[in-house]
Amino acid sequence: xxxxxxxxxxxxxxxxxxxxxxxxxxxxxxxxxxxxxxxxxxxxxxxxxxxxxxxxxxxxxxxxxxxxxxxxxxxxxxxxxxxxxxxxxxxxxxxxxxxxxxxxxxxxxxxxxxxxxxxxxxxxxxxxxxxxxxxxxxxxxxxxxxxxxxxxxxxxxx
Length: 158
Known about the structure:
By secondary structure, the protein is α+β, with helices and mostly antiparallel strands. The chain contains six helices and four strands; from the N terminus they run αβααβαββαα. The radius of gyration is 20 Å and the shape is elongated.
């Protein structure tokens, strides 16, 4: 009787582990908007503007996806003319991929976040890690106001 129970428990644990592995692999694949450092060329950066980047890790939780969505909407809807003209750009990047790991140190990233980089003469001039997005994620209006005010402040310092 005990051997049958151990076998049943062992098989259940195996099935749970297999399902978890499949889910984690699928979650990691769902980043079609990721770009690598090689794709970010001088031509892709606004001459004088702002690059807003959502940085995430390999595993993306629902809250991280909400932060990405809210931030993207805040940038695109808050600055429609500059966004359309390419003066403000949006990016999504996995900071845990080998070619992007330097961003974690460069921008003091330790979890999913939004980073604003102001450019001057086609080069990064100033950056700001918007770590407070986590404090606003439960209130979309507050979230948008926070991201837009930080972006406006950076743009005003040009």
